[in-house]
Design goal:
heterodimer; A: MetI-like fold; B: alpha/beta; Rossmann fold; six-stranded mixed sheet
Chain lengths: 319, 575
């Protein structure tokens, strides 16, 4: 088990190193010299050359890469060519915002989807099961931002229970932070839970047809008891996979919801950096996203290893 | 219930007029029988005869969409079983009635230690006071079913145990609460022969020690003869005959019973040296009435005199497993180790051995589907070792394979005509569409299928018919070598005889060299002149079939022969 986790860690580190190279290379391939962009359209070549020297973009690529790469380990992303401000504290803020938003939304989505999907599977030939399935189809079809707007117009504008938008750091004003978080988390979790319900349902349905569930029934367990004791952990494996993929996608995919609720997340930061042709900021945000995705994958791999003893001793069948 | 009848006379189980139907289609009808305490009854029949449904109904675990009629009473359990309701039945399941299933790997929860799974059945019925006591009792039970190092096994997950050990775990679980009735649904069908005989022995011993009633479901008549005193023969959901083993197996009254018996008795052959089938069963004489078991000598065979067509020298195949230690070499598995033999043109050779003995790996290498790690294999003039796909083209024409699972090995979205014609599309064979159609029709006729079959899909055929399609596909290109990997192990006995006869006919007609892998020694004995016995990737013995069966030199071969259940031997009066 430890060998496997060590292997996962090694793969994580290697992937991260490869990712820095890939992200750096990708940004250099993009057309447009940062110095020329920063200098403006009417700048003289001397001004551009001066800026390039200042940014360090006139140096050879390996040197630039090493400079950026060594900075990453110190948590230093450099200074934006466009806004001329330090990128690192900005990114740190946005990462915190996005992680809080997405983690809470995924947790809520799972809290809804696991029981709903299980009920839909257990009652798949009864009306109540069909209603859950239909609701999940509908939920997938409703865009998250639409749900967000509906939520705002009802709970914030008509009832006035919650603020319509904005963001307050939890350390500054926790009540304000929490009240501003409720609607966007629900809006994000709505679609996610609709997607997850389908996966939970099919995973549980599959498990219900497994022989070991019949064995559990033959031991004298009740249908629900057999499912809870023997089924859910088995069904968790495919659901875990989907959850991790959705989580990674949502970190950046939350950008629409961030716009609706005026939340300063990572997605919004990337969008405006791209609009401003702020190369180094784009590079930094993409790097952070890649790193987060890799961390999520690492966590899921470790979870697999804990949940499934067959993976733990993956000796069987490997070549 | 029948208060006036004394408890000793009351049967353990009485089933009256059991009927199971899916909508308007009856699956089981008018089935009545009773079982005395400690009696062992065999329930036999082919797949689809309703055997498993009957057992499932007794446990009250039929799928909801099936309709159940009739009644069943278990001694000491007041409610009628079919109307008792789930709550009452829950108290009975695993306590008064328990069940052992066919496939022990899928019947155990892969994420739970086996000790905990055994303990669970006692905790559910509160026959042990605490979890710790349950664990202790589970270890004792694992010891009683003769699992080596039971304390360690209790902490293992199912995938860490062998197939036989898993089935022992299932038996320990089923017997944990000392049930009155044990239902065993094909408990050894998925196991190797040597393991099968051990597991049967274990069930036998445990059941007689505890006085448990046994309802043993199987399609294998030799196993029933070994395990039971009475049989019920089911055909298409109806009881066609019942009675004592000795009577049924020596003087079957119903034609279906006779047919089933004839088809499973692989040591009996008709005048042409072919196995009896359902159609020719009228000429079959049950074993006990023949002079002595085993005297029905298989048909005389041509002595092989041709040049060597397949030559294997020092073949080895190793696999690397995933690391278990961070540093150090990866564990190596030797699937084949120094295997050498030669097969002459026209010979029929059987390869026998248990799962993991390397027999399938060997076949795959000879067929050019896998590359050997060491050594050489020359098949029909082509060296397989180190060959590229292009070099193997002549081999692909010369050698064809029939696989074990006729469902899995046929593309479900291809019509039968296209499946059979596909080998004709190899480069070098220039047949137009009309020529291919003619070839397909000829092959269909040869394997005994209607010409109309050509336009249908595999799922529209039965297992035996699908295996005929596989054989037609294999032979359409007129290969010189036919390789068969367990060609009949997925088939019912009655169908098995037909497919084996077909293979024998075609091998004769096309003068094929046959190489057949099987775990079933009687099948190999019937069809092959020579046997190669494999164990742990090595050849332990090879020689003339009859000689090996009558005089095995290697202890492992002797064990294999002894474990193989033969109907005639099971019924022969023990001296």
């Amino acid at each position: 088990m430890l060998v496997r986790i060590a292997g996962n860690l090694a793969r994580f580190v290697l992937s991260l190193l490869a990712a820095t190279l890939a992200v750096f290379a990708l940004m250099r391939v993009l057309p447009g010299d940062p110095a020329a962009i920063a200098a403006g359209e009417n700048a003289t070549p001397e001004v551009v050359a001066g800026l390039a020297r200042q940014f360090g973009t006139d140096r050879p690529l390996p040197v630039q890469y090493w400079d950026w790469f060594s900075g990453l380990w110190r948590g230093d992303f450099g200074i934006s060519y466009v806004t001329r401000t330090d990128i690192s504290p900005l990114v740190a803020d946005k990462v915190q915002v996005s992680l809080i938003l997405v983690t809470l939304a995924m947790a809520l989505a799972l809290a809804i989807a696991v029981p709903a999907g299980t009920i839909a599977a257990v009652r798949h030939h009864k009306p109540s099961g069909a209603v859950i399935s239909a609701a999940s189809q509908l939920g997938i079809a409703i865009p998250g931002f639409l749900l967000g707007i509906v939520l705002v117009s009802f709970f914030a504008l008509r009832l006035g229970w919650l603020p319509a938008n904005g963001w307050v750091a939890p350390g500054v004003d926790f009540a304000g932070f929490a009240s501003r978080l409720v609607l966007p988390v629900i809006a994000l979790a709505g679609v996610q839970s609709a997607i997850l319900v389908r996966y939970v349902r099919s995973a549980v349905l599959e498990v219900m047809h497994e022989d070991y569930l019949r064995t559990a029934r033959a031991k004298g367990l009740s249908p629900l008891g057999a499912l809870v004791r023997h089924g859910l952990r088995n069904a968790a494996i495919p659901v875990l996979t989907v959850t991790s993929v959705q989580f990674s996608a949502l970190i950046i995919g939350a950008v629409v919801i961030e716009r609706v609720f005026v939340i300063p997340g990572l997605g919004s930061m990337l969008l405006s950096a791209v609009a401003n042709r702020d190369l180094l900021t784009v590079q930094s945000v993409v790097m952070v996203l890649v790193a987060l995705t890799l961390v999520v994958n690492l966590l899921v791999d470790v979870l697999y290893t804990i949940v499934d003893p067959r993976i733990r001793a993956a000796a069987q069948g490997a070549r | 219930m029948n208060e006036e009848i004394g408890i000793a006379d009351e049967p353990l189980l009485r089933v009256d007029n059991l009927g199971i139907a899916a909508g308007a289609t009856p699956l089981v009808s008018e089935l009545s029988f009773s079982m005395a305490a400690g009696e062992r009854i065999g329930l036999i029949g082919e797949s689809g005869s309703g055997k498993s449904l009957t057992a499932t109904a007794l446990l009250g675990l039929l799928p909801e969409e099936l309709a159940l009629t009739g009644s069943a009473h278990l001694r000491g359990f007041a409610p009628e079983l079919f109307t008792a309701g789930d709550k009452a039945m829950r108290g009975l399941r695993g306590d008064g009635i328990s069940m052992v299933f066919q496939e022990p790997l899928s019947a155990l929860n892969p994420l739970m230690k086996v000790g905990a799974q055994v303990a669970e059945v006692m905790l559910v019925h509160r026959t042990v006071p605490t979890r710790a006591a349950g664990q202790r009792r589970a270890v004792e039970l694992l010891a009683s079913v003769k699992i080596p190092d039971p304390a360690q096994a209790a902490g293992a997950y199912p995938h860490q145990l062998s197939g036989g050990q898993r089935q022992r775990v299932m038996i320990a679980m089923a017997l944990a609460n000392d049930p009155q009735l044990l239902l065993a649904d094909e408990p050894t069908t998925a196991l190797d022969v040597t393991v099968q005989s051990q597991v049967l022995e274990l069930i036998s011993a445990q059941v007689s020690e505890r006085g448990t009633g046994l309802l043993f479901i199987t399609h294998d008549l030799a196993v029933v003869a070994n395990m039971c005193t009475r049989v019920l023969v089911l055909n298409k959901g109806r009881l066609v005959e019942s009675g004592d083993i000795d009577r049924i197996f020596t003087a079957p009254a119903h034609p279906y019973t006779r047919a089933l018996l004839a088809a499973s008795d692989i040591s009996a052959t008709d005048a042409r040296g072919r196995l009896f089938t359902v159609d020719t069963a009228a000429g079959y004489v049950p074993p006990a009435l023949r002079e002595a078991p085993g005297t029905a000598a298989p048909a005389p065979r041509r002595a092989a005199a041709g040049p060597a067509l397949i030559t294997a020298t020092n073949l080895g195949r190793t696999y690397h497993r995933a690391r278990t230690k961070a540093f150090g070499p990866r564990p190596v598995v030797k699937a084949l180790d120094g295997v050498g033999f030669s097969i002459a043109a026209g010979e029929r050779v059987g390869i026998v051995g248990e799962s993991g003995s390397g027999k399938t790996t060997l076949l795959r290498i000879l067929a050019g589907l896998d590359a050997p790690s060491t050594g050489s294999a020359v098949v029909a003039g082509t060296e397989v070792a180190g060959a590229k796909e292009a070099d193997l083209a002549p081999l692909r024409r010369q050698l064809q394979i029939v696989f074990q699972d006729p469902m899995g090995s046929l593309d479900p979205r291809m019509k039968v005509a296209d499946i059979i014609a596909e080998p004709l599309l190899v480069p070098g064979r220039k047949l137009d569409a009309r020529g291919r159609e003619a070839a397909v029709h000829k092959m269909l006729g040869l394997v005994g299928l209607d010409p109309e079959s050509a336009s249908r899909y595999p799922h529209q055929f039965s297992g035996g018919q699908r295996q005929r399609i596989s054989i037609a596909r294999a032979l359409v290109n007129r290969p010189s070598i036919l390789v068969a990997d367990e060609p009949v192990s997925a088939l019912d006995v009655s169908v098995r005889a037909q497919v084996l006869n077909l293979l024998a006919d075609l091998v004769d007609e096309y003068a094929l060299t046959l190489l057949m892998v099987s775990h079933d020694l009687s099948v190999v004995r019937h069809l092959c002149d020579r046997v190669i016995v494999m164990k742990d990737g090595r050849i332990v013995e090879t020689g003339d079939t009859e000689q090996i069966y009558n005089n095995p030199a290697h202890p492992y071969t002797a064990q294999l022969v002894a474990s193989s259940l033969d109907l005639a031997e099971e019924l022969a009066p023990t001296p």
